[in-house]
Design brief:
Blueprint: E1 7-15, H1 19-29, E2 33-35, E3 45-46, H2 53-70, H3 81-89, H4 92-126, H5 133-137, E4 143-148, H6 155-159, E5 167-171, E6 174-179, H7 184-193, E7 197-198, H8 208-258, E8 265-266, E9 270-278
């Protein structure tokens, strides 16, 4: 059950040169709750973040992103602030970049496999027609319609005399029709009568069966890359996960301190802030 705590109001003002130190002391105390300045007073503006804030915030964002994927844990106890700062001084940010690169490679390969699987499914479906894709997509004067229907045996009957002016190919439940532009409307009507479900013709050159085999090969290559990068991520997390968590906690505190200026009222030479803290303190 939550309990209430009596609070007292604190007002502080001083030289702008001391604001960084004051904010750090407030953060170290851990119980000073600064009230954001509204910026309503003429001639007194909201403070600007410390110049180092952007860099720390950028690194924090990267750390959070990496940890959201790796889900690191710390079973060995806390790491001191001095140890964290030493790790950062010795290039831990570069280690974060390296594992972020593995994660980016995983995401890229997984996205590629989504596209490749969709392409492979269509290529496998239309392979029975055995028609090179360039014949269906790269002849400007000809329009090609491709689709599925369970009435392919009725195609000649439905197309009737139109069959003499168009090219019709069927295989299993697939139908492909090539025509010149002036016959397009009639072709579409005939396909509608056959209940044809359109299939988007993939891009590329070559027969669907060959392109399907290449797509499957590319999928396997990507999957191998994904497995390799995941292994590297697991090894990285085992060695560096505990430090990563400590760095995240450290940076969250640092960013809070370095951006605390935006909670204060400032002028060219002075600052002022209002805060609340427990009366017992």
């Amino acid at each position: 059950m939550l309990s209430t705590v009596e609070m007292v109001r604190l007002t502080m003002a001083g030289s702008s040169d001391n604001l960084d130190e004051v904010l750090r002391v407030c953060a170290d105390l851990g119980y000073v709750h600064i009230t954001p300045y509204s910026g309503d007073t003429e001639g007194i503006s909201v403070g600007k973040p410390h110049p180092e804030a952007d860099g720390k915030a950028s690194l924090l964002s990267k750390v959070r992103s990496v940890n959201s994927v790796l889900s690191c844990s710390n079973k060995e106890g806390p790491i001191s602030k001095a140890q964290v700062e030493k790790a950062l001084d010795k290039g831990f940010a570069e280690k974060i970049d390296s594992v972020a690169g593995y994660i980016a490679d995983i995401n890229e390969a997984e996205a590629s496999n989504i596209r490749l699987n969709e392409r492979a499914a269509i290529l496998e479906k239309i392979s029975p027609l055995d028609l090179p894709l360039e014949l269906m997509t790269q002849i400007d004067s000809v329009e090609v319609y491709l689709g599925e229907t369970n009435k392919t045996e009725k195609a000649k009957q439905v197309f009737g005399e139109l069959s003499d002016r168009v090219e019709i190919h069927t295989a299993s439940n697939l139908i492909a029709v090539a025509c010149v532009g002036k016959d397009a409307v009639e072709v579409q009507m005939a396909l509608g009568e056959l209940g044809v479900k359109p299939i988007q013709i993939p891009t590329g050159k070559g027969k669907p069966s060959s392109l399907y085999a290449q797509a499957r090969k590319d999928i396997d290559i990507n999957q191998s890359k994904i497995d390799d990068c995941k292994g590297k991520c697991d090894s990285w997390a085992e060695v560096n996960g505990r430090t990563l968590l400590a760095v995240q906690e450290y940076l969250e505190r640092e960013v809070e301190v370095l951006t605390g200026h935006t909670l204060c009222a400032t002028s060219e030479h002075a600052y002022a802030m209002e805060a609340w803290l427990p009366a017992a303190k």
